[in-house]
Design brief:
With 154 residues, the protein is an alpha+beta fold. 19% of the residues lie in helices and 34% in strands. A hairpin with an 8-residue loop joins strand 3 and strand 4.
């Protein structure tokens, strides 16, 4: 189930009403400075690397969704208390399917963390956080830039 909000022009005074979908993404980083990426198994961006993530279900927090999506797509289990907020991403064109607002979290995982593809992920890979693939799905390159800032303390 997708959690959505609809706003009307009467409420905002701006343009037509739109449905807003809510998502959560996770940048899982190991001590070697690698980030866990999935290969998207579905459109949009099928075949491109992406951060694990997905829709926030009805009645679920973004934090809980981030933990669940990381587990479903990669098999990696993290404690919600260990996730660090990276940011909110709400550019109107961040997803070709419509208006999506996403919350991203940083998860520091132990060396040797095993990952396997599941759910929407075709494959998984560990990539250098400092030089991830040139083309990532959605606005995930921006999320990784923000994650590097948090890790470096800037």
């Amino acid at each position: 189930m997708t959690d959505t909000t609809t706003t009307s022009t009467a409420e905002t005074g701006h343009g037509a009403a739109e449905t807003i979908r809510y998502t959560a993404d996770v940048a899982a980083v190991d001590p070697e400075g690698r980030v866990l990426l999935i290969e998207r198994g579905k459109e949009p961006h099928k075949g491109l690397p992406a951060l694990p993530g997905g829709h926030v279900d009805a009645g679920e927090t973004a934090l809980a969704a981030a933990v669940r999506e990381l587990r479903e797509e990669t098999g990696v289990q993290v404690d919600p208390a260990d996730l660090v907020f990276i940011g909110v991403y709400d550019e109107p064109d961040r997803d070709p399917r419509g208006r999506y607002v996403g919350v991203a979290y940083l998860a520091r995982v132990p060396a040797g963390t095993a990952a396997r593809a599941g759910d929407d992920a075709a494959t998984v890979q560990w990539a250098p956080l400092d030089s991830p693939p040139e083309r990532l799905a959605f606005d995930h390159a921006r999320i990784l830039t923000d994650a590097r800032r948090i890790i470096s303390g800037h």
